[in-house]
Amino acid sequence: MTMKNTTAVAMITVCLLTAAVLWTELLPGSGVAIAKEKSMTVRVLLYSGNPDPTYELADPQIVAKLKLAFEGSKRLDNFSRESVIPAQIGYKGILVENPDRIEGIPDRFAVYHGTIQVMGVQKQFLEDKDEAVEKLLMDEAVSKGVIKDVILKRMKRER
Questions:
Q1: What is the pTM of this model?
Q2: In what order do the strands lie in the sheet with 40-45?
Q3: Which region holds residue 140: left if phi is over 0, alpha if psi is between -120 and 50, else beta?
Q4: What does the pLDDT look like over 96-151, one tens digit per residue?
């Protein structure tokens, strides 16, 4: 084989291998596992009639801080309301869904003004000490651009 033929064969081989890898990634049931970063969906309950700002939370450092905040949460046995989410117009808290079941974080929870509601088979209420969970999630919403500073300032004034 000449040098040109060898180079052509090598290029064709690389193209075929690349196509095979892409094909197996797109083909369900191909047996090829693709690593997906675990994430949570965070929804800021803000609007009535419009879609609420939503973002995906996967940053390992933020997730670690969230886990620490949950570790420091005390159970509230005497919480008197049915839910932490108030029936009002405007900001009503933050709802988080953890479908990937990131360890140390509930599968589904809501947080609003110092209280966390763990949702599931048995509803549970926890103290959000210093509003650490809510602040962390809200700061991330601002840094991701789903909540504008103007809206955040208005929410703080309405409090």
A1: 0.73
A2: 54-57, 40-45, 93-97, 108-112, 115-118, 124-127
A3: alpha
A4: 999 999 999 999 999 999 999 999 878 899 999 999 999 999 999 999 999 877 67
Q: Can you tell me which residue has the tokens 């009503």?
A: 92
Tokens linked to 14: 């690389």
Question: Would you mind telling me the total number of residues written for the chain in this entry?
Answer: 159
In angstroms, rounded to a whole number, what is the distance separating the alpha carbons of residues 127 and 72?
9
* Annotated domain spans of the chain: 1-33, 40-158
Q: Which two tokens stand for residue 67?
A: 């886990």
The 10s digit of each residue's pLDDT in 31-69 is: 554 556 789 999 999 887 789 999 999 999 999 999 999
